Amino acid sequence: MTLEISRLLDLTTWRAFDVTDDGRVLAGCDESGSVQLVELAEDRRTELTALPGAVSGRYLPGERAVVVQHDSDGNERGQLSLLRLDDRRSRPAPLSELEPLVRDPDHVHRLLDVLPGRIVYATNRRNGVDFDVIIRSVATGEEHVVHDGGGMVAEVSVSPDSRFAAITVPAAKPLSDQVILADTMPETGADRRRELTRRDLAARHLHPGWHPTGLVVTSDADRDRTGIARLDPRTGDRRWLITSDAHDLSGRLSPNGRTLLVTTAVDGAHRLALHDAGTGEHLMDVALPAEGWCGYPLPEPAWSPDSRFAAVSFSSPTTPGDVLLVDTATGTCKPLTFSAAQLAGEPLAEPAVHRVPARDGEQIPCFRYAPAEPDGSAVLIIHGGPESQSVRAFHPLVQAMVARGHTVLVPNVRGSTGYGKRWYSADDTRRRLDSVDDLADLHRWLPAVGLDPNRAALWGGSYGGYMVLAGLAFQPELWAAGVDIVGISSLVTFLENTAPYRRAHREREYGSLTDDADFLRAASPLNRASAIAAPLFVLHGANDPRVPLSEAEQIVEAVRANDVPCEFHVYPDEGHGLAKRANRLDAYPKALDFLGRWLS
After folding, report:
1. Is the peptide bond before 386 cis (omega within 30 degrees of 0)?
2. Which of 380, 389, 216 is nearest to 298 (CA)?
């Protein structure tokens, strides 16, 4: 096998969405070209869906049925359907064979939780902007609104007696979440909602779960690193259960409230352990197959209803993507899929971990993937978000670039998560260009690892696409080429034209059109497009609800007006990124050939 991009993109990857009490796992598999649902049970796999685009799902507790979430051509307007499972099923079900649960193609419906006979979902159908949380009976269709406080909704956890719903919503500060407790059956005239944390508190609150003595959350309230705490559901008082001053921790509480599945993030890799949810006491470590990652953008770990099993999605630089089944009674971690077998022993690049010195004394975390015979060229891949991070997971484009002789640098510039609140807050609003300046620091470091600063390119998607364009526009003397995938070219027009339900949410991070328009214009690559001299390659999906196609069209027009080489490819059946393998197979070889021409 040669590590050409077409072969790497053809690799099948797996992820875990849910697990039953008897260890059946509802998995996602992209063998067909997009992620479809498959059930894994006792060395047997049953294909469940055959829809045109990517899907996700959850088991309906107590029934042999799956709630399926799907959209159309990447438009992110999720629809919810029911698939009744039959052990005699001989073929995967097309959309026409799914039972409609919640269908309204003009609005978003996002599955948040599943309960016996009921689903919990968020929708913006009331006004197209604000998300309400609704509990719906699967049998009767009866719906009950438990939250309509406006804005977006992140996560929901319903108490075991179904009386309360813990809801996390965006708070006022960038990358902050507020916990709201909603009474699902309030007395007449009583206030249905109670704020457990302040809206103005700069802190994350993630993965709420119900313990007999309180609500367990992952948080960095009054801390730099996330830990696991218990909130009093009456007062909001916080008591820390598990903390680390060196690493971010994340906890998923078992349904019975007894056990925490805890991940520790260590330079883009995860450690996994089980802890007592009452005391925080460490019970046992869970050995992962390699140095890799088992969190976002992969699905979060899922517990079986009886708390015996946890299904985990896992990837590493040499593992395309697998499903692991953790037995919490023994701590054993059993792989249910073996994606690396497709590589037939072909060696892949593993990253070296660096701290790159910045102009102000900061240290920029960076992974370096080096080929056996480097040609001196460098490609910097900048992650999206910006509230996200680059991790040690499989990336076919990284491996393909390395196979072609490029050294690939994957940094976590300021604004990235995984390195504490101080670091992820370092690019908020009017500090946006501080993260762009990190690109220049990385460029300055290239000779220290034997790379040619005259042969360095930028590659990024979404916010990473903004970083590519900003690097070319604000540092035109540094970069030999750029690849922008669904990127923002103007922070002003992006905020004006993104989906209405996303605007206020993104203004927290970038600044508002009302208060910060001057800075937003100054930090927009489009306003400095005349300075761009490096050849540019642009990819975009026509149905992108996050970064509209117009962001790509306007930067392409401006760059071409300067007679700078610019390739532009639009995919009519894609949204925010390329979800379909056929489109990736068309786009990415072209992008890599483009880099090869300008970095030779």
Report:
1. yes
2. 389
Sheet holding 177-183, edge to edge: 155-158, 164-170, 177-183, 193-195
- 43 CB contacts (<8 Å, ≥6 apart)? none
Q: What is the pLDDT along the chain (600 residues), one digit of tens a residue?
A: 457 899 999 999 999 999 999 999 999 999 999 999 999 998 899 999 999 999 999 999 999 999 999 999 999 999 999 999 976 667 899 999 999 999 999 999 999 999 999 999 999 999 999 999 999 999 999 999 999 999 999 999 999 999 999 999 999 999 999 999 999 887 655 568 899 999 999 999 999 999 999 999 999 999 999 999 999 999 999 999 999 999 999 999 999 999 999 999 999 999 999 999 999 999 999 999 999 999 988 999 999 999 999 999 999 999 999 999 999 999 999 999 999 999 988 999 999 999 999 999 999 999 999 999 999 999 999 999 888 999 999 999 999 999 999 999 999 999 999 999 999 999 988 999 999 999 999 999 999 999 999 999 999 999 999 999 999 999 999 999 999 999 999 999 999 999 888 888 888 889 899 989 999 999 999 999 999 999 999 999 999 999 999 999 999 999 999 999 999 999 999 999 999 999 999 999 999 999 999 999
**Rounded CA gap, 95 and 163, in Å?**
34
Indicate left, alpha or beta for 511 from its phi (over 0: left) and psi (-120 to 50: alpha).
left
The reported pTM is: 0.94
Q: Residues 541, 486: contact at Cβ < 8 Å? A: yes
Instruction: Give me the residues paired with residue 472 across strands.
Output: none
Is beta strand 177-183 parallel, antiparallel or unpaired with respect to 193-195?
antiparallel
Paired tokens of 56: 């996700």
406's CB contacts (< 8 A; 6+ apart) are 371, 374, 375, 377, 378, 379, 595, 599
Distances in Å between the Cα of 233 and the Cα atoms of 34, 190, 197, 238, 355 are 41, 17, 10, 10, 41
Residue 261 near residue 301 (C-beta atoms within 8 A): yes
The two three-digit tokens of residue 100, written as one number: 């409609």
* Distance, CA of 281 to CA of 300 (rounded, Å): 22
Say whether 53 sits in a helix, a strand or coil.
coil
